[in-house]
Write a structure and sequence with these properties.
This protein is α+β, with helices and mostly antiparallel strands. It is 34% helix and 24% strand.
Length: 239
């Protein structure tokens, strides 16, 4: 009879562990996935679809997309950190900007055209989260960085309600910069789960470039590979 309280205690612990596991790996991922799905995304149209051949004999679907202009907030990352540290550092700094680490511009022409120290008020402005989070690597053809493919910049797209850079609130963190991205074409290949490893990025880059060359297209020089993350891989694995 004395063992019954112990058995009930163990049973309760097992039930609680099961509920926590369900919350972590089922409920929370679905909530994060749903939140990411309703985020605003840059507008694009698919111009054409190509097929690239992987080293293992598989095929890679490559979309050539035309993107409309949009605004971004971004952070360039220092060297000397691990890949995980670089991405986390970049994400925290840009997320800090959109979640209130900024100065809201005063209304009217005064807020748009006067210097920053006159244009901003004391109240911060919360900016809606968008997708995807963009991580640019240093992998460019013909350079030693091609083997490292380290993340050098983390970028958030700004909501479309902001029509110009002068509409955006001013970052308090000097590492965060604002930039207007003009309309452009991009060759895109999808992935699932966690962000691909640097070696995978380099391989996929080569496959995409070969697919483009076969149809007479060539990527613009001076740009790294952009890794677009639409969902948090920690919360929504393999979606």
């Amino acid at each position: 009879a004395g063992q019954r309280p112990v058995r009930w205690f163990v049973l309760i612990l097992l039930i609680l562990a099961g509920l926590l596991t369900l919350l972590r790996y089922v409920v929370a991922p679905l909530l994060f996935w749903r939140a990411a799905e309703v985020c605003e995304r840059p507008h694009f149209t698919i111009v054409r679809t190509l097929t690239g051949e992987m080293h293992d004999g598989g095929h890679l679907k490559v979309q050539v997309r035309h993107y409309a202009p949009y605004l971004v907030a971004e952070v360039y990352l220092p060297k000397g950190l691990s890949e995980q540290q670089r991405r986390a550092l970049g994400f925290r700094q840009v997320a800090g900007y959109i979640f209130g680490g900024n100065g809201k511009r005063r209304a009217g022409l005064y807020g748009q055209w006067t210097p920053h120290w006159h244009a901003i008020g004391h109240e911060p402005e919360k900016i809606s989260m968008t997708a995807p989070v963009q991580c640019e690597t240093g992998s460019m053809p013909g350079t030693p960085e091609e083997r490292a493919a380290e993340t050098i910049k983390v970028t958030f797209t700004m909501p479309s309600k902001y029509k110009s850079l002068s509409d955006l609130p001013v970052p308090k963190n000097r590492n965060v910069t604002l930039r207007a991205v003009s309309e452009h074409y991009a060759a895109v290949a999808g992935f699932r789960g966690s962000p691909p490893q640097p070696s995978k990025i380099v391989h996929v880059q080569a496959v995409i470039e070969t697919a483009l060359e076969e149809v007479g297209l060539r990527p613009q020089s001076g740009h790294g590979v952009m890794v677009y993350q639409y969902h948090d891989p920690f919360a929504t694995p393999n979606l």
